[in-house]
Design a protein that fits this description.
It is built from eleven helices and twelve strands. A six-stranded mixed sheet has the order 7-8-12-9-10-11, with helices on both faces. A three-stranded parallel sheet has the order 1-2-3, sandwiched between helices. Strands 4-5-6 form a three-stranded antiparallel sheet, covered by helices on one side. It is 34% helix and 18% strand.
C-alpha cells in the first residue's frame, strides 16, 4: 500500500499491531474507561497502554479531554524519544459557524464541518488533520483536507437510516439513528447529540439498547437521564450480553419505563404502536457494534 492506516485492536503496548517497528505518525484518540479487564482500572493506566504505540523520532498526535491521560501519554512519548503533538499546546480547532478554524505551528486552515453529525466530530477532524500535517512522508494539499471532511462517511456512528425495512415500520416523520459506541465517553457524546435532537423535535425519544456483558452499562446510560421517553432492552444473539431485564430495570434510574424486546424489529413495532398520531418518534439504537451490524443487515442497508 502507498499509505496504510493500521488501527490498534486493543490497547497498544501488547497489541499484535505493535510488531510494526516503523511508522510515519501515531495517533491516540481520547482515552475512556473501556476493556478494563485487559488495560487497567483507571484512565492513566489505560492511557499508558495506549501510549505503547509511540516510536522514537516519530510524531505522536494526541487529543485528550482527560488531563491525566494527556500527562501520561506525553511523558511516555518523551521517554521513548517520540515527538508528542498534543491538542491545546500544539494544535487546536474551533467551530465557527459552519466551519472549523484549525491552527497549528504551520499556520491556520478554514475547513468545513465533517459530513457527520455530532459536535464532537470537529475534534475528530482536527486530530486527523493534525496527523497528516505533522508527518513528512506524503504531501497533502489543503484542498484534500476540505474534500475529505465533506465526503466522510462512518457507518454506525450517529448514522441516520433514511430508508429500509426497519425504517418502513415507523410512522411518517420518524427518525431512526444508529450508534455502536459502548463506553462512558460514547454515552456522553450521544446524549449531547440526542439533547440537541430533542430540542428540535416534539416527538418522543426512545433508546433501544443492547450491550455486551463486559461493558459498563451504568456508565454508558447515566448521561441519558432526563432525556428519554422510553428505554427498550435487547439481547445480542451469539454474544455474551447484559441481561435485557437488567437494562430495562435501569430505566427506573433514568426516570422512564424500561421494557424488553426480542429484537430490534419487535421494539420498533411496539414503539410505533404506542406512538400517538402525529407524534413522530426519534429512535436511537445504541450500545454495540454487533447490534449495529445486525440492524444494518435487517434494514437492508449494510455498509458499502
Amino acid at each position: 500500500a502507498d499509505a496504510l492506516i493500521l488501527e490498534v485492536g486493543l490497547g497498544g503496548r501488547l497489541d499484535a499491531t505493535n510488531v510494526i517497528e516503523t511508522s510515519q505518525v501515531g495517533v491516540i484518540t481520547p482515552v475512556s474507561m473501556d476493556h478494563m479487564e485487559f488495560l487497567g482500572d483507571s484512565v492513566p493506566k489505560i492511557a499508558a497502554e495506549k501510549a505503547g504505540i509511540a516510536r522514537s523520532g516519530v510524531p505522536l498526535v494526541c487529543h485528550q479531554t482527560d488531563p491525566e491521560a494527556a500527562k501520561t501519554i506525553e511523558a511516555f512519548a518523551r521517554r521513548v524519544g517520540a515527538h508528542p503533538i498534543m491538542s491545546g499546546p500544539h494544535f487546536s480547532a474551533e467551530q465557527v459557524g459552519t466551519d472549523i478554524l484549525y491552527k497549528d505551528g504551520k499556520g491556520t486552515l478554514t475547513l468545513p464541518m465533517p459530513a457527520l453529525p455530532g459536535a464532537f466530530q470537529s475534534a475528530n477532524a482536527a486530530l486527523a488533520v493534525a496527523a497528516l500535517r505533522h508527518q513528512t512522508h506524503w504531501s497533502v494539499p489543503d484542498s484534500a483536507f476540505s474534500a475529505g471532511l465533506r465526503w466522510a462517511t462512518w457507518p454506525a456512528r450517529l448514522q441516520q437510516l433514511s430508508s429500509g425495512t426497519l425504517v418502513d415500520m415507523l410512522p411518517d416523520g420518524s427518525a431512526l439513528w444508529l450508534d455502536g459506541g459502548h463506553n462512558q465517553a460514547a454515552g456522553m457524546q450521544v446524549a449531547t447529540f440526542l439533547k440537541s435532537v430533542k430540542e428540535e423535535h416534539t416527538g418522543p425519544v426512545h433508546v433501544v439498547l443492547g450491550m455486551l456483558s463486559n461493558k459498563a452499562l451504568s456508565d454508558y446510560l447515566r448521561p441519558f437521564k432526563g432525556l428519554l421517553d422510553g428505554l427498550w432492552a435487547l439481547p445480542i444473539p451469539g454474544h455474551e450480553h447484559h441481561d435485557p431485564a437488567a437494562i430495562a430495570a435501569f430505566g427506573q434510574e433514568l426516570g422512564v419505563p424500561g421494557r424488553m424486546s426480542a429484537d430490534v424489529g419487535s421494539a420498533l413495532v411496539q414503539i410505533a404502536e404506542e406512538t400517538e398520531t402525529g407524534a413522530a418518534p426519534q429512535i436511537f439504537v445504541l450500545g454495540s457494534l454487533y447490534l449495529a451490524g445486525d440492524v444494518l443487515a435487517r434494514n437492508g442497508t449494510p455498509p458499502e
